[in-house]
Design brief:
The complex is a heterodimer of chains A (about 325) and B (about 375). By secondary structure, chain A is of the alpha/beta class. Chain A contains 11 helices and 14 strands. In chain A, a hairpin with a 2-residue loop joins strand 9 and strand 10. Chain A starts with a strand and ends with a helix. Classes of the chains: A alpha/beta (about 325), B alpha/beta (about 375).
Amino acid sequence: MSDAVIRTDRLTRRFGDFVAVRDVSFDVPRGGIFGLLGPNGAGKSTLIRMLCGVLRPTSGGGSVLGVDISRDPEGVKRRIGYMSQKFSLYADLSVLENLRFYGGIYGLDAERQQSREQAVISLTGLAAYNDRLAGKLSGGWKQRLALACALIHEPEALFLDEPTAGIDPVARRDLWDLLFELSHRGVTMLVTTHYMDEAERCTHVGYIHQSRLIACGRPAELKSAQDVTPPGTRRFELRCAAPADALARARALPGICDATLFGDTLHLLVEDSLSESALIAAVAPADPSATMRPIGASLEDVFVLLSRRRNAERAA
Amino acid sequence: MTGFRAILTKECAHIRRDPGTIFFALVVPALEMMIFGYAIRVSIENIPTVIFDLDGRQESRRLVDSLVAARTFRVVERVHSAGEFRHALAAGRAKAGILIPADYSERLLRREQADIQVLIDGSDSQIATTAQNAAALIVQQLAMQRGRRFGESLQLAPARDPAGRSAMPIEARIRLLHNPDLISAFFFVPGLVVIILQLVLLFLTSFSIVKERENGTLEQLFVTPVSRAGLIFGKLVPYAVLSVGEILIVLTLMTAVFGVPIRGSLPLLAGLSLVFIVTALGLGLFISTLARTQLQSMQLSFLVMLPSVLLSGFVFPRSEMPLPIYLLSFGLPVTYFLEILRGIILRGAELRDLLPHVAGLAICCVVILSLALTRFRKQLD
């Protein structure tokens, strides 16, 4: 992809003997939302920090909006917005003062500051809180203010490190609506998250496991990949009266490759050789209410499968 | 200097909204000045003393009176047994004990040498030294008086003064310069100005930066195009201004309350104070590059403050220090500024008199600033 706005090429970062990010390569096209997932400590924040120009890569490289992150980190900083994991605005400054501060940092002149202030306030709906101290805002509004500050200089690329951690579901959905709005306007984003449902909404997702990017692509591509639901297997959802007991039985049954509890249902990866009726009989015996329906793989299935495979390879 | 104005404005807003900063920068120094200025006394007086007078007649009372008259000793207890005498010293109620033997008056009358016993608690060496010298001097003077009177009665004198009275053969005429009344405030209060100034600057600057590191706002700033210079100066200038206000308050208190006159040039004092302020700001910045948390920055600040108080010559004369410590004291900016301030304030010293100290301060300033600036980067590694 020649129009990639964010691009990394075998990007690697070591801290002494520890490799925090190893050989990570991916591209995000203009307007794309790249969701980066992975457990804590897998290297997500290190990767973002390198792309934002505050951490030098040990080897490999990357560019944002065509600016090389190793050669011109300050050039990158001028053109991106960054919203960190932690609330990192000044709690003792008001909403407007925070916006003016960041506008000043990016060197906006008075006229442009005025128009950008209006733009980000109306985008984030902060108008009612203009004079409230940032520290007195609720979690969701703090995140909106952080986003507004990150957007004050109208960046074309935005990096968001767990923007929805710890906020309520309504605020979370509102924030994602904002991100889609930005994406439509051509802003390219990289978002880290722990939520699978957020990952499903990204245009591209990557999964980092032990500092390597082990999955990367569009969610649909990843889920339909052949090795996620290998030939000769199918995925089912089983609804039954005692799912926990059913899980124990399913795990002991030959012909079942994977079984996971999902609320009051069971998600199963089953070999074709095992018929549906035989399966119900074995897993939920004497349960007339038990029903099964075929389902597709979820992103979680993909990440679980790839992580297990990686762990098995390392153990071998 | 990209972002300088934005950072400066923001920092001023922080200071305006946090009464603690103003309090710490302007009120605490004034309070410290008052408390320590009064508390620190070099001349030791009123050493609690226990008297065990076995004689109890006129001569022994005269001895006790002369001891008390010099104000070095203050009688807190009179005891009547050896046990009580020892116990008063052991319990710490008295730091000195005077034992006058029963035959004190008789021996004097018989022209035999009388002796008294002086016991001193040596655990506080400063008090002990003072008590020792004072006791020896007072007893010696009393003995000399008796000797002179005896000589006069025989029409003999070791020497005579211009009026023809009997006198000692040699007399030292001592004149005290710069602080004729030996007021301890003259020596200590200018030093206190230096110590308080460094304390406030160190804490305010390192705290203000480390607080941003802790809150994550520093990382947020690193991701913006703010320049290093804009960030550093924007953050430090308000504290430099505050510290100018602080030194003015403290110097005013010094002259108005403690009566220490400033004999030298005010512009010189102001100019060199600025050099010291910049040095202390650099030191605060340096600490903030080492500390991850406010607690760490406090510990590091104390690590700097302690030698600044103890080894700079503020309390103990540097000339008395063992060589390695003496050499170490050259690394402290306070050492030089202390000499400069005492020189200008007490002796009316001029720039050329202070050149070695000014050079030392300038070197400290350059070294500390370059260390701090190289360490402070807009990078996280």
